[in-house]
Design goal:
- The complex is a heterodimer of chains A (130) and B (152).
- Chain A has 130 residues and is mostly helical.
- Chain A contains four helices and two strands.
- Chain A is 58% helix and 6% strand.
- The longest helix of chain B has 33 residues.
- By secondary structure, chain B is α+β, with helices and mostly antiparallel strands.
- The chains are: A mainly alpha (130), B alpha+beta (152).
- Chains A and B meet through helix 2, strand 2 and helix 4 of A and helix 1, strand 1 and helix 3 of B.
């Protein structure tokens, strides 16, 4: 009961997503900083698929014991070697990085607003709605 | 893993692109310089960028040791200029101008190997990369401001 009052898995998942979003911002900033570095390969952050797997396993009572708990998942940086359309071997696409950055910023804002709303609700409960 | 790191990374990109712009400006300023440092005409310079590796920090080693699981690659830590080197791949342009003070016996003058068109294209590329870095910094600032609103 108390665990649910203080957020439980939802709050943990949201803060994890905030962490992932901050890391993604860092990775995109690095991709943009290296847009003119020969041979540089862009990096990406994998997180959402891990989170959805963890959430699906949580709601499934028959999930194996080896399944990953929500508080154990962590965002993972991967280097994308597949595509290169430039002669210097660099595969950073500035438009795509900018779109990803705008998307990531909005996502971070939404998550931060959700966490802030949760704490505002908690505050209202503690003060008895006064 | 913090927004401050994003700012540092973007700042390294801005520094590198500005230095590149400085070198381009120097090339353009010396487009007609026939007396360089070694008595030869001015030779075009170019910057060499290299990505900075972010794997070596204590924090990343600690987090990978604590996590134990799949850690993936280390996130990069920006860009750096490793050298400014003379462009040896392009020869000096030879112009016939007998009135020039540096003309040889046949009236030919060796001019710098600077191509203004190439420099202009490089300049646009550097400016766009700089703008992208500024956008990334503004984005990181916005995220940081939003995070500060949590618990207010």
């Amino acid at each position: 009961m108390l665990d649910r009052l203080f957020g439980g898995d939802v709050l943990v998942a949201t803060t994890k997503a905030l962490d992932a979003s901050a890391l993604r911002q860092q990775v995109i900033a690095n991709n943009l900083a290296n847009v003119n570095t020969p041979g540089f390969k862009r990096q990406d952050v994998q997180f959402e698929d891990q989170l959805s797997r963890a959430l699906a396993q949580k709601s499934n009572p028959c999930a194996p014991a080896s399944s990953v708990a929500i508080d154990k998942i962590r965002p993972c940086v991967v280097t994308v070697n597949s595509t290169s359309e430039r002669a210097d071997g660099n595969n950073v696409d500035m438009e795509m990085e900018n779109v990803n950055m705008a998307d990531n910023t909005l996502r971070f804002d939404a998550l931060a607003q959700s966490v802030a709303g949760f704490f505002a609700g908690l505050k209202a409960v503690i003060s008895g709605g006064k | 893993m913090s927004i401050g790191t994003s700012l540092q990374i973007s700042a390294s990109g801005l520094t590198a692109e500005r230095l590149r712009l400085d070198v381009i400006s120097n090339n353009l300023a010396n487009v007609n310089t026939t007396r360089g440092a070694d008595g030869q005409p001015f030779r075009r310079q170019e910057v060499v960028f290299a990505s900075r590796n972010g794997g070596g920090s204590f924090a990343s080693a600690l987090s990978s040791a604590r996590g134990g699981g799949r850690t993936g690659d280390a996130a990069g830590a920006g860009v750096q200029v490793v050298s400014i080197r003379p462009d040896m791949g392009r020869d000096f342009k030879v112009v016939h101008d007998p009135g020039h003070p540096d003309a040889d016996a046949q009236g030919n003058v060796k001019m710098p190997n600077v191509e203004p068109v190439v420099e202009m294209v490089d300049m646009i590329s550097a400016t766009r990369a700089y703008e992208a870095g500024v956008t990334a910094i503004n984005s990181a600032k916005q995220m940081q401001a939003k995070a500060l609103e949590i618990g207010r």
